[in-house]
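Entry for the shared binder. Reason: the reviewer on the internal report wants the predicted structure included alongside the sequence.
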Amino acid sequence: MISFAPSSMRSSVSAFRARLASGFVWNLISTFALQGSVLLTGLILARVLGLKTFGVYALAITTVMTVVGVAQGGVGIIGTKFVGEWLHAERERIGRVIRMCAVFTLATGASAAVFLVFTATWVAEKLLDNPSVAPALQWVSIAALFHVQTIYLQGALHGFGAFRAISVAGTWVGLFHLIGSVGASCAWGLDGAVIAFTCSAAARWWLFRKALLTCCLEHGITRSRESRPEDWALIWRFALPAGLASLVTLPCLWGVTALVARQPGGVAWVGLFAVAHQLRQLVLQIPVLLNTVASSVLSRLKGRNEGSEYWQVFRANLLVGVGLSTAVVLVLAAASSQVLGLYGPEFKDGQGLLLVLLLSVIPEVIGVTAYQLVQSSGRMWRSLFFIVAPRDLLYLAMAAWALPQWGLVGAGWAYFIAYSLGCIATLAVGLGGRQQLPTDR
């Protein structure tokens, strides 16, 4: 059982500060640059393009990022987990795994980009019931190649604990994305916005690749040309179930967006839906950046079999993440009308949806944090069948039922219910794998 006694909490917070403070600060800067630029860019584009055109832009980006999530196949998990664990005792394997991830993502990223280019018109007409999305979708298809490859680069950098390098690269990418997207959209409208998105994806890949090469050089690690069966076995153990999980999660999330687009509100509803989820994701950045640093630390502690500190860091991460997220949720909920008004007066119609999605943040934070135990214990296949598939299929089914009756608020309640049940399932699967984790003495 996880103890939250006062003495345990004090020691947990002490360990948390000692091991995570530096990484948290750098990760905060990176998250502020990357996610802040995305949020600010969305706010400006909503005003520049207008609600309906912004809805087309949001549909195109959501579709591409859905395919990216499937194509990346969980290589980010491999990078973070095994680089962190092997840095202490099996450094020679790191170069081989990094090369394996590079080859894997090059193949899947290129396949994703080609697939999107050739199916854009069909997807826009048949699935989204909105042919106007097709040109934008074709423009952003190339971005899939760069986004897929960037995921393993970021994962490996997290494994090394190179949060300063991530912060520097993220800051440059965020500035490029913000300035490029705003400038291009003002000059060329929707076409300019989607071209800028693709260019910023290429810049992100180049900067993070450069950061990883520098990090490997500092640790004396070279990208090996050797390939061994035990390295590729990680694809089966981690990448394949993670990829299949993405194949369930992301199409379900995208499917709900597609259902929203087919409602009487059309792309205008998609714009409201996209903004509400952007704000929900903004709140989630606090626990996500905590978890990113914690995952790197937990991997190293597991590699050294330091059980007491492993569980102290986990407990402290959970407490701090839930506490900070709750505080931000309360503030944002109180100011929800004013915040939505920043996007334009018509965006205030999404206030009911936003409030429900903010409520869903708390169980989602607990689930995201507990998922570290699932990854650390290697229970990825159980995660697919007992967490991801039931949660996301339930969300899609409930949203399909609720949208015609209650509109966007109905979709919000479907999300809340599905992810609350997913939180319970994650705790059960994660704590069920304690025998594969360091002992809490």
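Summary line for the report: The chain has one domain: 6-436.
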